[in-house]
Amino acid sequence: MAPILRTEKLSKSFPTPRRGEDVRALCDIDLDIEEGEIFGVIGKSGAGKSTLVRCINFLERPTTGEVIFDGVRLSSLSKKELYHTRQSIGMIFQQFNLLAQRSALRNICFPLEIAGADGHKTRERAQELLELVGMGDKATSYPTQLSGGQRQRVAIARAIAANPRILLCDEATSALDPETTRGVLALLKDINARYGITIIVITHEMPVIEQIATRLAVLDEGRIVETGRTSEVFAAPKSEAARRLLIHPEDGLIAAAARHYFEDKGVALEEVIRDYA
Amino acid sequence: MHSFFSTYGSMLLAGIGETLYMTLISALLAYLIGLPLGVLLVVTAPEGIRPLRSFNSVLGFIVNVLRSVPFLILLILVIPLTRLIVGTSLGPSAAIVPLTIAAAPFVARLVEASLAEVDSGVVEAAWSMGASPFKIIMKVLLPEARSALLLGATIAAITILGYSAMAGIVGGGGLGDIAIRYGYYRYETNVMVVSVVLLVVIVMVLQALGNRWARLIDKKASAPAGMAFGLFGSGLPLRSKHSEETNKGDEHNENDTDD
What we know:
The complex is a heterodimer. By secondary structure, chain A is α/β, with parallel strands linked by helices. Chain A has helices at 49-56, 79-86, 104-114, 120-132, 148-160, 178-195, 206-212, 230-235, 240-245, 256-265, 269-276; strands at residues 5-14, 23-33, 38-42, 64-69, 72-73, 89-92, 166-170, 198-203, 215-220, 223-229, 247-248, 253-254. Chain A is built from eleven helices and twelve strands. In chain A, the strands form three sheets. Chain A has a six-stranded mixed β-sheet, with helices on both faces. A four-stranded antiparallel β-sheet of chain A has the order 2-1-4-5, covered by helices on one side. Chain A is globular, with a radius of gyration of 19 Å. By secondary structure, chain B is mostly helical. Chain B is 76% helix and 0% strand. Chain A binds chain B through residues 57, 59, 79-80, 82-87, 89-91, 93, 95, 97-103, 106, 110-111, 113-115, 140, 142-144, 159, 162, 168, and chain B through 119, 121-122, 124-132, 135, 139-140, 143-144, 146-147, 217-221, 246, 250-251, 254, 257.
């Protein structure tokens, strides 16, 4: 089966403010993402994760290379066709990006309005979605009246309202506490299982990948240094970057699988943390 | 006291009417011109949703030039145009022409400032959902900035009110005209004082209404700090009452914003 999303030698450079060499954010990214899977992209901050996710839906136009969504090269599309295609690629954000002047319900109506729908049907659909994300009683609440986790749930409902084939999650849980994160990830997993929406999760947190992704790619300095099944990469990370990411230098936490890995090797954890911190 | 109002009452009342007429019609027309210009300024800016570098610079230049012409000069410069449109260069209707021309570029900048405050993340989310630039303007920029826009409109109306008093110099009518004719030319200080007090009251009422309305339609807890520099009444409802008000506003606003 052809992958639902493929990137071919995707590269992105940004011009520097002053003359000189462009900054290379992404370099020759080749990815194949299969329909229905949850794919993780992990890397430390500055590795190019956000640029990558923005290139996937052409919020950023790649400098070279291709993004092929459902067999269509995005670079070949006209503006209008691109807008239409984006309706099939949902996206959620670290800062939720809800419309502050719209209630939760009307936030979810928003992508439907963009798609040209309006009226009673959209409201019914929005209410269904609110219930799906466990927010059925918050229809009239405004974003400022909701907690971070609740806002992200509304954002998820909004992102899947137009029945996208793919959902892009850009550090979607990075502003949430661990418990809320678990809830939101469980919801994403549920949506994936229920509707078969392909999910691409971009994060710098290994536990997120561990909980949700079936496969992952490790991004380091704009390049993919490792890809594989999550369990395999966690058990035997091949790249330096992956090994480093298995440890959370900020709080000394270690992903469970990583802990096993190092313990099996007989390496003292404190040493590893010190080395990579 | 009684004789004062029997002598000047009807004139002052007419003055109030003329002032409000000039101010509100000019504000309306200024927004008809200035709102699209302000939107264009934001949209075509380098970081805007449809950057057009040279168009943006030219538009910004024209707006700046118009804004820097002193109102008194403009008042006289546009007399031929006023005659052409209104048929006369005297009276409140004639004053509307220079008032509108002076206010439109000011409104454009106010609108620009309000729209620039809209969270860029929300705009990005709209892009990601496949919104076109036009839909982003109509469904994101303008509705999200509505509270700041309304505060800006209050400021614009009050500024126009101030200008309209100057229009009295060329026989524009209104309270300013009365203050100049009676107070300045005829030394009837009491008429001038009453006219000025009435102007102050109108300004206060406009500002208080604008502030209240802006707060009522704002669903963000904190009003946009940059724009909330109202002269009067900005502290009218107590902070603790604010959340109640917002909640009460929810239901009927749901319908307000549906059009």
